[in-house]
Amino acid sequence: MPPTNDSALSSALRISVMRLSRRLRAERSDTALTLNQLSALAILDRHGSLSLGELAAHERVQPPSMTRTVDCLQDLGLITRTANATDRRQVVIAISAAGVHLLTEDRRRRDAWLACRLRELSPAERDVLRAAAPILERWAQA
């Protein structure tokens, strides 16, 4: 039964999004990376090279937390660190070819799972999700 008021809709969306997120995590590549590490790689892939502070700001974490994440990613060869060309005291972090490959494979697996689920829906249901996707993205960026 569809939610009848905003409070019920809020609760239904929260539960559904959490369950979908959990299900998508189950479809991750066979990687030992944490969600924070994967998210940091995705930010670098999307935005290009960033300073540690910029990366931390994108992830909404404190720089010391991001330092630990970046250290692990560097140890695994998934990112590179270089000195900033204009300020040698600042370090620039970039995703490596191995990081791009890992991220691409991870996305491929989860996209394949979602594509299978979409094929199970009617055209009208897919249209509803097509309309909802930009709204959900806007919320995710807020």
Key phrases:
3 strands; 8% strand; 6 helices; 142 residues; elongated
Topology:
Blueprint: H1 6-26, H2 35-47, E1 50-51, H3 52-59, H4 63-75, E2 79-83, E3 91-95, H5 97-119, H6 123-141
Antiparallel strand pairs: 1-3, 2-3
Helix pairs in contact: 2-4, 3-4
How would you characterize this protein structure?
With about 140 residues, the chain is mainly α. It has a single domain, classed as Winged helix-like DNA-binding domain superfamily/Winged helix DNA-binding domain (Arc Repressor Mutant, subunit A, Orthogonal Bundle). It has helices spanning about 5-25, 35-45, 50-60, 65-75, 95-120, 125-140; strands spanning about 50, 80-85, 90-95. A hairpin with a 7-residue loop joins strand 2 and strand 3. Helix 2 (about 35-45) crosses helix 4 (about 65-75) and helix 3 (about 50-60) packs across helix 4 (about 65-75).
First-to-last CA distance: 29 Å
Helix and strand composition category:
mainly alpha
**N-to-C series of helices and strands:** HHEHHEEHH
CATH superfamily: Winged helix-like DNA-binding domain superfamily/Winged helix DNA-binding domain
Radius of gyration: 18 Å
Quote the CATH topology: Arc Repressor Mutant, subunit A
The second-level CATH architecture is: Orthogonal Bundle
Strand content: 5-15%
Number of domains: 1
Helix content: 55-70%
Low-confidence runs of at least 5 consecutive residues: none
Strand order of the largest sheet: 1-3-2
| Total beta strands | 3
Number of helices in the DSSP assignment: 6
Principal-axis shape? elongated
CATH class: Mainly Alpha
The description of the largest β-sheet is: 3 strands, antiparallel
* Mean pLDDT level: 91
